[in-house]
Structures
1.
Amino acid sequence: MGDLVSMNNIIILGAQWGDEGKGKVVDLLADRFDIVTRYQGGHNAGHTVYVGPQKFVLKLIPSGILRGKRAVIGNGVVIDPGALLDEIRALEKVGINVAEHLSISNRAHVIFPFHRLVEKASEAREGRVAIGTTSRGIGPCYEDKIARRGIRVADLLDRDNFRAQFDALAADKQTFADAFHIPDKIDYEKVRGEYEEFASRIRDMVCDTSRLLNQSMAAGKRVLFEGAQGTMLDVDHGTYPFVTSSSASAGGACTGAGVAPTRIHGVLGVSKAYVTRVGSGPFPTELADADGELIRKKGNEFGAVTGRPRRCGWFDVPLLRYTAAINGFDSIIITKLDVLDEFPAIKVCTGYKINGRVTDEFPATSCETEAIEAVYETLPGWHGSTRGATSYEALPDGAKRYLGYLSEQVGVEIGCISTGPERNETILIPGSRFAKLVG
Ligand code: GDP
Ligand code: IMO
Ligand code: MG
């Protein structure tokens, strides 16, 4: 009994630069939990889940909603109510009862159209290297949060106070727009009216979600924390400034959901069998050749939110060691193994050289990270298909060797392997720490 209780609450998050396949893994495991909660990010996320032939791309709503679980949007998430209502409508259209299952934090911050405008202006500013954001207003909303002038869901529901807060924030943004000669006009009064309407539509789903989670956990319910983005996009630990504006790593789950570290019993990292990145910023193992093209084509590596082609490269061991340390991964889930099926030889980055110096430390600046010369080990391919494999034994020997090598180099077990986008295209390793954690 003690052991089971101690394994109740698990974080699943991205070990690279996002799009590792978190949606698929969360969907796969959701059945074993009572609640799935998001704790950071917003509709910059795009988590793809297949339920039979039907494809869903979840942006703000936790993937667990598809399995009839309680879905929670925690206080650390930033919410664009228009995008949220669109997502709710799309899910309800296919028969998913969102209103019954979704809880929205009263402390989450709200994204307004002027956040998108500020983002557009700052990305286009002369002399600035653009981050290549998803243009959803995520960064500017978090800016207002940290600057203590943001508007939260609870404020939105408090009609009188909302008006005063909105007008003050709108005046602030107009000053910014004037100072930076932003030509786009915003009809602030119209926006205020729209948001008052949004408030009435989400009101019944809003609550203190930290309280909800803590009470549920005390009653023995199991909670799955669904990370968005990935550790290398974390505002503290990622490739700053080419990051998102939230804490995508495991620590973010506690602040972003209002749950104590002592209530979390395991952390699982999701990593592709190679690496991808969308947007700008350093990428030590990026491939600008036919191999990169083949990965993009076979892996269908195009952004789930923006449709942008994802940059592709070989698996990066030092990077995984870095993210494993920051998050304390108990186990790693390797996704998209099947994408490497066709390669006669597969490279793995085992070390970094920066200006002639060999190091196993991930650099703090993007200049140093850009200067990394990746040191590679070449492994033979496996001349066979892993697509849809459901048992480790069924994998070609070369694929087993590849996985064994990654695990040994990173120093963390591989507890689960994904061999296709569908939930049954998965290998669970019996007896692994992963198997024990997910029950
Ligand atoms: P997330 O943001 O981490 O949830 O990942 P995305 O949904 O943005 O991107 C992952 C993509 O890979 C999606 O299109 C998935 O359907 C797909 N996918 C996930 N696992 C596998 C796998 O093992 N093999 C293949 N071929 N595709 C996968
Ligand atoms: P999921 O949850 C991949 C990237 C953007 C950009 C940077 C900052 O699907 O893994 P933002 O709009 O957040 O200010 O953009 O972060 N980015 C992602 N890349 N997957 C994501 O989410 C991402 N969310 C943001 O491309 O480089
Ligand atoms: Mg994604």
Note: The pocket of guanosine-5'-diphosphate (ligand 1) is lined by residues 14, 18-24, 46-48, 304, 335-336, 338-339, 418-421 (CB under 6 Å).
2.
Amino acid sequence: MNSDCIFCRIIKGDSSAKFVYKDIDLVAFHNIRPDAPVHVLIVPVEHIESINALEERHSALISKMMLKAKEIAEELGIKDSGYKLVINVGSGAGQVVFHLHIHLIGGWGKI
Ligand code: 5GP
Ligand code: ZN
């Protein structure tokens, strides 16, 4: 938990978000500024700054995040229409929140 981190505050419940999933390892919530009709962020509970800070011990967690992305895509009805999974790594790539997250983006043509 890093109290300067917005995603840690959301996970702790100190800041609000529209959750679509929560368990002991990861959470998922809607992006406050969506770039598409569906824009969910899949976030590990552990404060990991980015892909660059990943360690071998995170292997199962990363795998779980990818599988959860697929499940959420299905639940939100975009599994077959198609979606993007994006991870920005570092400020040069557009990362602004330095707590690892996968963007699940899709739903074009649904609205
Ligand atoms: P990044 O650019 O770091 O890959 O993406 C961070 C994302 O987090 C941005 O798309 C931004 O809209 C989203 N975001 C930032 N602050 C909040 C917040 O307080 N709540 C929610 N739900 N999303 C946020
Ligand atoms: Zn954090």
Note: Strands lie at 19-22, 26-30, 38-44, 83-86, 102-106.
